[in-house]
Design a protein that fits this description.
The protein is mainly alpha-helical. The protein is about 75% helix and about 0% strand. The chain has one domain: Voltage-dependent anion channel (Glycosyltransferase, Alpha/alpha barrel). The longest helix is centred in the middle third of the chain and has 33 residues, at about 195-225.
Amino acid sequence: MNSRDDKDRAALPVAAAAREVLAPVAGGPSSALAGLSPGYFGLVMATGIISLAAHMMGLPWIAAALFYLNIGQYAVLWVLYVLRAARYPGRFFGDMIDHLRGPGYFTMVAGTCVLASQFIVLRDDLPAGFVLWLMGVALWLGLMYTVFLALTVKPSKPALDKGINGGWLLAVVATQSVAVSSALVAARIGQPYRLELNFLALSMWLWGGMLYIWMMSLIFYRYTFFRLLPGDLAPPYWINMGAMAISTLAGSLLILNAGDAPFLVSLMPFLKGFTVFYWATGTWWIPMLLLLGVWRYGMQRFPFEYDPLYWGAVFPLGMYAACTFEMSRALDLDFLAGLPQFFLAVAILAWAITFLGLLRAVARNLRSAG
């Protein structure tokens, strides 16, 4: 097979899903709505975590600007998703049982919980944060069992190398986002609910870690024992790192909450050990993912253009900055102080480039409709 054929075939596995988002631009808003990516709440996840990280590191104007922008993005996306479900129910619900697109719906859970965290941390607005937290828990329950039940019982299933990618780890991110928001609510609510919410946060943290082990085993097996083409290396593979980063953040918050929950005090060595374990695992992924990116875009000349899946690569960068900051605070690791600032700067740059790509895609769509 020659190099050109390789590149054509390389685009098929992931681009087949991406085309449903990008190709409808030529058909106007109706077609774009029909092909709206299930993972578009990754935009809310990425914007929200960078806002929170900026707040942690003393950049209130960036945090506030992204907070208000995120409220608007969240509202617009809900309108679009409801319209898509009403007008194109076959495609909306059909995506939930698709092995590559279905896990994208977990961004709805994570985006909702990240916005809840913004209200709690940036505005100290517990009522609004609590309502969004409840929505996140309800979405988690509905989507977790709907998606995985459907993928389990559907009669026709793809081979492992065509049916799994890093996007599956969005289920881990969704679970850990519930853990993070639960811990934040617990720190600001009275007893006895404080104890119960901390226990919920701990349970979700543990379940998310177990889910990562299951899924990462399959993804790593796919990595090393099946041929990997440039088109297979979709941006959600950065969730390999992002899932561990948000697990680190949740663990750090549990450590900080230990004074309000005696059972957390008894688990302190375990909490600290596994929090560092998660952080170290996420850190290991960063050079690997960068090298794979060089291979994909530099050596294989894979085209670099806007894709909503890129929000799944921006989010882990912001989350790594936030989790490293919180871990260094929870464990008194002052020598890590420079790392969060560096990754926050990288995350802001990546967010700006991706957001510019989004604006250009929307402008093209509007021109086509006109």
